[in-house]
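Narrative of activities, Objective 1.

The group set out to show that a structural description can be obtained from nothing but a protein's sequence at a throughput compatible with the screening campaign. Below is one input-output pair from the validation batch, recorded exactly as produced.
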Amino acid sequence: MARQYPELEFERPVGEVVYRVKGASSDLILKRSLEHFASKGALDIDTLGEKNVDALVDAGYITDLADIYQLTKAQLLQLDRFAEISAQKLVDAIAAKQTPPLERFLYGLGIRHVGVQTAFDLVAHFGSIDALANATMEELQSVDGVGIVVAESIAAWFADEDNLKTLTKFNTYGVKPSYQVKSGKLVGHNFVVTGTLESMSREEAADRIRALGGTFQTAVAKDTTYLVAGGKVGASKLKKAEAFGTKIIDEGEFIALI
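Output recorded for this entry:
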């Protein structure tokens, strides 16, 4: 981020293990955080793109992520970017995300090193934000794919008073992230997708797998059930799958499964 936004300065307060941006409440940080929160991979809030985010923050309507749930149509109509229909559309889009999937909500919080897959893995293991917030370093590292760096980042995020205040505001505003226990015909099956698929992107394939209760993995492991091999497949993953006895299927067989 320092390279992308040279106007930002980083510092590490005495006694802390993580670097912070000077003036962490700066408009720039808030804008980019809100964009991420509303992005397709996170809460997927329609019409809350970069320009609308900038307008809302510049107007002083938003001070943290939770504040979007207090936006009113009357406020939006005070801004040049919004008319009757567009203002109502945004208010409705935000209201529709009052009970977002917990894994998408967690990813949307923007915790450093916690990508989409790690968010899914953490939620599957802990089941709630409270359990995750109170997890020890050892418990965090027991989750597949979570090493010391990721565990420290998670622990540091939940130790930050500003982050905890924001979580409290979400709760006050009636935002209740939900976790659904896996169900579907792919429960118990783990998938890795390698190479290029013709009918969908890798992210779309991952979503289809998860929707049917399966687990999407980023690397072949002993518990991987299927390696979906698309075009231009890397030899290393094929070799690893063969060594573990993982079933290798092509795109057509994968589509038949889902």
